[in-house]
Design brief:
By secondary structure, the protein is α/β, with parallel strands linked by helices. It folds into two domains: 2-232, Spore Coat Polysaccharide Biosynthesis Protein SpsA, Chain A; 241-464, Rossmann fold. It has 17 helices and 14 strands. The strands form two sheets. The chain has a seven-stranded mixed beta sheet, sandwiched between helices. A seven-stranded mixed beta sheet has the order 10-9-8-11-12-14-13. It is elongated.
Length: 468
């Protein structure tokens, strides 16, 4: 297991060699390789020259990144995270306030498989700390309280430097804060990602402002703004639109309930879902059947495993349905594939591989976007290869001698919104606010869906596999 120690530095000439020496001296159970990623935020006191010497002395251990413009701690940490190559990461200030000798304690919950993120708390019991500024402590506690209120966590020290995490997770989280707002920003995003967060007590040897402490009252105000900002904004994933799309769908649970209620009569005792994403369907399905949730995206798998850890009746598996199923995959009597095959060029392969898993006499339930004439900028942004018509979908199952029991559409009113946003306005996302409004209106839309004279936005097929 490799640990990346992420060290942002700015004018730390006096302490830099000492902190590097302390970090490199650590022997941590479960960690066999150590990497130091040091980001110099355009220092002006000779820090750069010392870093050059350290990198020359330890070329296999120390990676130095020099920034041409001073932008703040948040930007430096973001840079370090993206450059790191370790399995785990921990943030380490260069000012000697935090003791690297406590890495083992901070990392232990992650190494044991219990946590995804660990905070080293200066205010938890049983560790020594230097007695310093009362008002600074009150400000820290107030910011932690405010952050806890909006994230629904019970941290004792949100502002701590010592945050350890799985690097696979950290690399997928966008960091927007340039300065000290990174602490509440990361906390909000860890919470919204539903990661397993632990705290352990640590010692603290804080500096005075005369000794070089850099944080001030303006940073406190920025932290308050950041707490509010990321309570409102769901900016949790780096890059991929698909991640954001699934998170946004959490704002429309009534639509998910509508879709699954319509297909519930065809669900048996054990359902396998192809492409479970972040579990929007699973949390409903598990109420009336056992579920095998399958995924290939490592981020989604991490979310699913965290969400359903030790949950009876939910089994999270890695499976790419374009490939043959694993030999140890349980055989279900129902398969659900909701809004997946339109993202896959060879959709027939998915149906064929699902057929190999399904018990004889079992049912497949596939939900897809309907109507190629509705294909628009929204489809392109989401990554759709196609939209389906009735015969096109029916043929996929009749080729395997399945009996098509039902073939119907849902969400007729949604056709108007999709056509307007994608065909006319050329939008590339519906957005969380739009989905929240839609969610409120779902009960009405369910009623009028029965009387509107056109086809719906979604196409649903229920097909039964022949008995042996």
């Amino acid at each position: 297991m490799k640990l990346s120690v992420l060290i942002p530095v700015y004018n730390e000439r006096r302490t830099l060699r000492e902190i590097v020496s302390r970090v490199m001296a650590q022997e941590i159970p479960g960690i066999d390789t150590l990497e130091l990623v040091i980001v110099d935020d355009c220092s002006t006191d000779g820090t750069h020259e010392i870093l050059a010497e350290l990198a020359t002395e330890h070329p296999d251990t120390i990676q130095v990144i020099l920034l041409e413009q001073n932008q703040g701690k948040g930007n430096a940490i973001s840079t370090a995270i993206q450059a790191a190559t370790g399995d785990l990461g921990i943030i380490q200030d260069a000012d000697l306030e935090y003791d690297p000798g406590e890495y083992a304690a901070v990392l232990q919950p992650i190494l044991e498989g219990a946590a995804d993120v660990v905070y080293g708390s200066r205010f938890a019991d049983h560790q020594e700390r230097r007695v310093l500024y009362f008002r600074h402590t009150i400000a820290n506690q107030f910011l932690t309280l405010l952050s806890n209120f909006f994230t629904d966590l019970n941290l004792t020290d949100m502002e701590t430097c010592y945050k350890a995490f799985r690097m696979q997770i950290a690399k997928t989280i966008p960091i927007r804060s340039k300065r000290f707002g990174i602490e509440p920003e990361l906390t909000a995003k860890f919470a919204k990602r539903k990661l397993r967060i632990y705290e352990v007590p640590i010692s603290y040897h804080g500096r005075t402002y005369a000794e070089g402490k850099k944080i001030g009252w303006k940073d406190g105000l920025q932290a308050i703004w950041t707490i509010f900002k990321y309570w409102v904004i769901d900016d949790m994933f780096q890059g991929s639109y698909g991640h954001k799309d699934l998170i946004d769908m959490e704002a429309a649970p009534k639509y998910t309930e509508w879709t699954l209620a319509r297909t519930r009569p065809y669900v048996g005792q054990l359902l396998l879902e192809i492409g479970s994403g972040i579990g929007n369907d699973v949390r409903i399905l598990m109420q009336y059947t056992d579920v095998i949730a399958t995924e290939i995206d490592p981020v989604y798998l991490e979310i699913l495993r965290n969400a359903y850890l030790n949950t009876p009746g939910v089994d999270v598996r890695e499976w790419d349905a374009t490939l043959l199923p694993p030999t140890d995959l349980p055989q279900p009597d129902s398969i659900l594939c909701s809004n997946v095959i339109e993202h896959i060029e060879d959709d027939r392969a998915v149906v064929a591989h699902a057929d190999q898993v399904l018990k004889p006499g079992g049912r497949m339930i596939f939900i897809v976007p309907r109507g190629q004439k509705l294909y628009c900028s929204l489809d392109e942004a989401i990554g759709h290869y196609r939209r389906y018509d009735r015969e096109q979908l029916r043929v996929l199952f009749e080729e395997l001698n399945y009996d098509v029991e039902e073939l119907f559409t849902l969400n007729k009113i949604g056709v108007i919104g999709w056509w307007w946003r994608g065909k006319i306005a050329k939008q590339k996302a519906i957005g969380r606010l739009g989905l929240k409004v839609f969610n409120v209106m779902v009960p009405l839309f369910r009623l009028i869906d029965r009387i509107l004279p056109w086809e719906g936005l979604s196409l649903v097929i229920v097909a039964r596999k022949p008995e042996e």
